[in-house]
Amino acid sequence: MYILTKEQRIKAFAKLGSALQNPDDYTQASLSAIPFKNPWYTLPNILKQLDAIATNLEEKKLSHWLLPYPDFNTDKSVGLILAGNLPLVGFHDILCTLILGFTAKIKTSSEDAGLTAYILEKLIGIEPRFGEHIHIVEKLTDYDLVIATGSNNSARYFAYYFGQKPHIIRKNRNSLAVLTGQETSDELSLLGNDIFDYFGLGCRSVSKLFVPKGYDFVPFFQAIEDHKTLKDHFKYNNNYDYNKSIYLINRNKHYDNGFLLLKEDTALSSPLAVVHYEEYNDMDEAISKINIEKDNIQCVVSTDKPPIEVPCFPFGQSQCPALDDYADGVDILRFLYNNR
């Protein structure tokens, strides 16, 4: 097996980043076929994800990220079980695995619609020697480490089957926003991106709002009006209509702007097209509740950075993690390097 140097790997991924930012006509046409296989993977969402990935695939950023890790040779393989709730949601796991020189054995989600394989084919086209290190498989066998992402139920399954190997196993997490009532219209509009990007299907999608007691939701609804075209997507609209019907039948108190439902609820996780909210008396109370739930929270968005024990992002940035914004706060590079 040919071993690529760290510099060769960095340069290949940087070239992939350039290709993703400037997709040619053939790539555009190929990507346009994906939504027919998975309607949640709309072309705008695919392109949004490609741009977010490409932003990180700059040679300078990659080199800085890898600075603490000297080059090494390994013949170990990493079994990757990827989620499929968002387009290319597992790309960061693949990047971490390949850029350190491991072989990736990849089990994609049934919802992936061939998107991951297509992007990896482009990487192999840029650097053919990566072909020996990339294997998309139906079943994981002969692996040395495992990184698996799934639901709370599948996480128990993963722990049972992969617990004998060094592993990272992820389960459900949610993200939330902390509002003070002093946010500008522009900030609330950006919060709309944190809620609605990728239809709110990601673990970085805001599914709950902490708001001060007596909060006025009118400015919030006005600021997110630009997202009303979500109702044009039949799957999203079906979820909106269903949840609205349930709340009306059960006489659950809720707010409704025609494409989003707000319901007072202590739960972090909300149904699709619904955002929960919870009132707080003072910021200390909100911070305390967040820290208690820290193991179930992916990130928080806020105008300020409150003293919380989970990653915090400015409004509009929850879906744009940097290279070292690791899912669940687990440093994948460190995990891989320590098990090389």
Descriptive account of the structure:
This protein is α/β, with parallel strands linked by helices and 340 residues long. The chain folds into two domains: 6-172, 3-Layer(aba) Sandwich (Aldehyde Dehydrogenase, Chain A, domain 1); 174-313, Aldehyde Dehydrogenase, Chain A, domain 2 (3-Layer(aba) Sandwich). Helix content is 39%, strand content 16%. It contains 13 helices and twelve strands. It has helices at residues 6-21, 25-32, 34-37, 43-56, 59-66, 91-99, 115-126, 152-162, 185-196, 218-223, 234-249, 283-292, 332-338; strands spanning 77-81, 103-107, 134-136, 145-149, 167-170, 174-178, 206-212, 255-256, 261-264, 274-280, 297-301, 312-313. The strands form two sheets. It has a seven-stranded mixed sheet with strand order 8-9-10-7-6-11-12, with helices on both faces. Strands 3-2-1-4-5 form a five-stranded parallel sheet, sandwiched between helices. β2 (103-107), α7 (115-126) and β3 (134-136) form a beta-alpha-beta unit. α1 runs antiparallel to α4 (43-56). It is globular. The model has no long low-confidence stretch (mean pLDDT 95).
